Amino acid sequence: MKANYIDGAWKASDQSIENINPSDISDVVDRYARAEKRDTEAAVEAAVKAFPTWSRKTPQQRADALDFIGSEIIARKQELGDLLAREEGKTLPEAIGEVNRAGQIFKFFAGEALRMAGDLVDSIRPGVAVEVTREPLGVVGIITPWNFPIAIPAWKIAPALAFGNTVVFKPAELTPGSAWALAEIISRADLPHGTFNLVMGRGSVIGNAIVEDSRVNAVTFTGSVDTGRRIAATCVGRMAKFQLEMGGKNPLVVLDDADLDTAVNIAVNGAYFSTGQRCTASSRLIVTEGIHDRFVNAVTERLAKLVVGDAREAGTQMGPVVDGRQLNSVREYIEIGQSEGAKLVYGGDRLQLAREGYYLAPALFTETTADMRINREEIFGPVASVIRVADYEQALEEANRTGFGLSSGICTTSLKHALHFKRHAEAGMIMVNLPTAGVDYHVPFGGRKDSSYGPREQGPAAIEFYTTVKTTYLAG
């Protein structure tokens, strides 16, 4: 059994989490210790005690530690990518790419530790100078989802450590393997005991214990809207800082003037890669009348050729859904779409392959409207729906007709429409002739409306959440 990591030591537990391979449900990846509330409290206590030491380390010492972590992740990307694909179900190339991205993130924030800057300005009063600096917050609670089990932890843990905070990290219970492997690497980075802590277990137990603990100065969370709202209410109640990333219902607009092959490639990538289990997935395909039929036919033909199979087998283009509960949820949405009058033109069936897994044929709906649940609620699976519109103006209106606002894309050869869409699309990230999924680590990540709350993640913008500002007045 793989143990939790608390106060610089591996701590066993009486209970364990069985990690199942969704490509082959007879394959148990490993067993991982399931922490209890008392373990979380011990982790928070260790982080509190470690904060004075870690926060006073020099920028170079923090940078060296993060660079070590990033370098080892990248050196082991094949091994760790295989583990990720095995436990989560994204294809091996996607998994290796995610691991490599995690390593790049740690190395980027190693540099950010050295780039922390302040301002020295003249006061409005004679003989007084004003110094504006940033300082770490203290203990940061990190709660991450299962769909990017090493990249999302990396882009939260790395800036937290880079700017001098200590960490209590709770990964998703569905995918503990990648989190544990990351923690094992961090455990050898010569951090003071208690600087980084891993507690694996139920969100209702571990997550709540982190969020409710008055010693946790800030909470960063990626997950569902309902859970995010509960976290926000609790943090506001005890005046703790919080940052939320909560999903999307992302539109991809395809205009008549779009290059058809480009639009189809972008739509299939955005909607179905990673089995559609991305908060940035293109779940709403908003298509103008002139290209609609050709686009639908071309996407359908492409889906018929899409290879669904074991995530680690060569040639697989789409792996399984992450587990049985998620599979049932996605299939229920497919039934809901049909009951609402949408036309299922392709897929949606559970697939029986050589090894039993949670396989689903990619599903495509047409003849859908904005008021249908399949166009309003996040399905988080390989399902996309087409909304037919008359022109660009109606396409933009439909794109913005959602309670989410994470990523919004457009396929067009018109500079006029691209620039107008960039300005008027109500989302945090805009993609022009690119999939709505797929972002860089050195620029801000985040959205509007129900998708995000608080300062942006990733890139230099991360400093806004993980530090607090101090203004010092100096008399000569």
Question: Would you give an account of this structure?
Answer:
The structure is a single chain. With 476 residues, the protein is an alpha/beta fold. The chain has two domains: 4-246 and 451-475, Aldehyde Dehydrogenase, Chain A, domain 1, CATH 3.40.605.10; 250-432, Aldehyde Dehydrogenase, Chain A, domain 2 (3-Layer(aba) Sandwich), CATH 3.40.309.10. Helices cover 40% and strands 22% of the residues. It is built from 15 helices and 22 strands. It has helices at 37-55, 59-75, 77-88, 92-115, 151-162, 176-187, 203-212, 225-237, 260-272, 289-305, 324-339, 373-376, 392-399, 415-424, 463-466; strands at residues 4-6, 9-11, 16-20, 28-33, 119-122, 128-136, 139-143, 166-170, 196-198, 218-222, 241-245, 250-254, 282-288, 343-346, 363-366, 383-389, 404-405, 407-411, 429-432, 448-449, 452-453, 467-475. The strands form six sheets. The chain has a seven-stranded mixed sheet with strand order 14-15-16-13-12-18-19, sandwiched between helices. The protein has a six-stranded mixed sheet with strand order 9-8-7-10-11-21, sandwiched between helices. A hairpin with a 2-residue loop joins strand 1 (4-6) and strand 2. Helix 2 (59-75) packs antiparallel against helix 4, helix 3 (77-88) packs antiparallel against helix 6 and helix 4 (92-115) runs parallel beside helix 5. It is globular and about 70 Å long. The model has no long low-confidence stretch (mean pLDDT 98).
